[in-house]
Hints:
Strand order of the largest sheet: 4-1-5
CATH topology: Alpha-Beta Plaits
Radius of gyration: 10 Å
Helix content: 10-25%
Largest sheet: 3 strands, antiparallel
Low-confidence stretches: none
Number of domains: 1
Bound molecules: iron/sulfur cluster
Number of helices: 2
Amino acid sequence: xxxxxxxxxxxxxxxxxxxxxxxxxxxxxxxxxxxxxxxxxxxxxxxxxxxxxxxxxxxxxxx
Length: 63
Ligand code: SF4
């Protein structure tokens, strides 16, 4: 499993990450980001892509 943390003080809820890893990130009905704190290893590539596109550099993989 991979552990994911998003710095919600940085996140501006643009949703770029949702396109890269839709199983992990989503925008809720209020257009606020929600995400899974843990995800399957198979999501690693998608999460890394989300990290790369996040304009606020708010997404981290936690060891
Ligand atoms: S791409 Fe970054 S700033 Fe945008 S919603 Fe995702 S974590 Fe937040």
